[in-house]
Design goal:
This protein has about 475 residues and is of the alpha/beta class. Helix content is about 55%, strand content about 10%. The strands form two sheets. The chain has a five-stranded mixed β-sheet, with helices on one face. Strands 1-2-3 form a three-stranded antiparallel β-sheet, covered by helices on one side.
């Protein structure tokens, strides 16, 4: 779960006031400042103490008072924006941080990082990407450069996945404003099967890990209970004492470097076979950035969502399965869209008997190399079950088989057409290597016809 803002608070340095020739002289960072600026700094430093004591609302009030005295105090404006993000007041946060980067805060890395993070948390992915790009141009030697590059990549992937989900949408039955089913399944549905219920869950002991708190275990169990209730008990859980006996394992880590990305608060690795989940490993990060109870519960809900088959992310920043954690939705549970999506993932299959019959027919015709008849059967399966990856693979194999038959019959025009269709299917697959033979055969045909440059381009798809 990418966390796109780094909650960077700027620590204000000491301010001084000395008497010189019967007058008070105020200074900050080696420069003389006015009395109002001095008072603003004192108030802003007071806000820092309030934040340390988790008195965020009072700290916001103090920062607003400081800015009323000195509107140019960039540190106060950046810290104010950051605290507004924590409270979920994203439009106000973005306004404050935009003002900071356009003024005295433009030279401060924290201003740009927090602005981009607030934009990402508000679902403004394109704006966030632009802001991060400006950051990389302005601060090429920043210690945050690696994290920002990872963040930009994550934003781009999420935007790409959302675009593909819209392209693959099967209409209002599978993608509506009341759920994010297409974004969640990433082209193929996987889930725990009825004969696996209750899914056995092991939660490791986090004692001794930096940042671990005993109540985190109960928060994690509660998150599992929330998803079970949301699914109407279509997916159920049983906690076990041994990892080898579990289908889902949950472990705590206190080093962000062990996660798949340094910008994450947790990650989940899934193993599946033919649409059935067979193993899920959840890792939850401790220690960095102050993992409090609301953030831990939000992170747990998000990662468990992945563990039960919601592979992708919601495009709506209010949902638990949105790709970025922000304080605005850490304090509530699953949204109606989260609930509708998991229920759709675990819905009883429509036309189950017909799907099974058509699939069996398709397999038989495919084995007999009756590719046209096999394709008709698999297309019927996909019409009823657009998320069925195995049927989509088999359609690709049918195209590849027809192409090879035409190639052998010297019907190169149709062969090229069928190979091209097979490659289109290949791009949609979670495991495109299943159609590598189509790429290899197509490249061989092109070389036989002295179209070597095109064949070389196809070979690149195999690397």
């Amino acid at each position: 779960m990418p966390r796109f803002y780094l909650t960077l608070m700027i620590l204000l340095l000491a301010v001084s006031a000395v008497r010189a020739e019967d007058q008070m002289v105020y200074s900050y960072r080696g420069k003389t400042i006015s009395k109002e600026q001095y008072r603003a700094l004192i108030i802003a430093k007071d806000a820092q103490l309030l934040v340390r004591n988790n008195r965020v609302a009072e700290a916001i009030t103090r920062l607003e008072q400081a800015l009323a005295l000195d509107p140019t105090l960039a540190e106060a404006e950046i810290n104010l924006g950051n605290l507004l993000v924590r409270q979920g007041r994203l439009p106000e946060a973005i306004k404050s941080l935009r003002h900071a980067v356009s003024g005295q805060g433009g030279h401060l890395e924290e201003a740009w990082i927090n602005l981009a993070g607030a934009q990402a948390s508000a679902g403004q992915s394109a704006d966030a990407e632009k802001t991060y790009t400006v950051f990389l141009q302005k601060f090429p030697n920043s210690k945050y450069r690696t994290k920002i590059i990872e963040t930009v990549g994550a934003l781009q992937r999420e935007q790409s996945n959302a675009s593909k989900a819209r392209e693959n949408s099967q209409g209002p039955e599978t993608a509506t404003v009341t759920d994010y089913y297409n974004e969640a399944i990433l082209g193929h549905r996987i889930r725990w099967q009825p004969d696996q219920m209750p899914v056995r869950v092991f939660i490791a002991d986090g004692t001794g890990k930096h940042g671990y708190q005993p109540q985190f275990r109960a928060l994690l169990k509660d998150a599992f209970a929330k998803w079970q209730a949301a699914s109407e008990d279509r997916v159920t859980f049983q906690f076990v004492d041994s990892a080898p006996n579990a289908l889902i394992t949950c472990t705590w880590v206190d080093d962000p470097k062990v996660l798949k990305s340094t910008i994450k608060k947790g990650d989940t690795k899934l193993s599946s076979l033919s649409g059935a989940l067979i193993k899920a490993n959840i890792r939850l990060l401790l220690g960095t950035g102050g993992m409090n109870d609301p953030l831990m519960q939000f992170t747990a809900l998000h990662e468990i969502g992945h563990a039960i088959g919601l592979q992708g992310h919601s495009p709506n920043p209010n949902d638990v399965m949105f790709f970025s954690a922000n304080a605005g939705h850490r304090n509530h549970g699953l949204t109606p869209r989260d609930i509708n999506t998991v229920r759709k993932v675990y819905a009883a299959d429509l036309f189950a008997n017909n799907v099974t019959a058509d699939h069996d027919t398709g397999v038989a015709e495919l084995e007999a190399k009756n590719y046209a008849k096999a394709m008709e059967a698999f297309l019927r399966v996909l019409k009823a079950r657009p998320d069925m990856e195995s049927a989509r693979v088999n359609v690709g194999l049918c195209y590849a088989g027809l192409a090879l038959q035409c190639d052998q019959a010297k019907d190169f025009t149709n062969a090229e057409h069928y190979y091209t269709e097979a490659l289109k299917i290949r791009k949609l697959l979670a495991q495109p290597q299943l159609l590598n033979s189509a790429v290899q055969n197509f490249a061989a045909m092109l070389r036989d016809r002295d179209r070597n440059a095109e064949a070389d381009e196809l070979d690149k798809q195999l690397k």
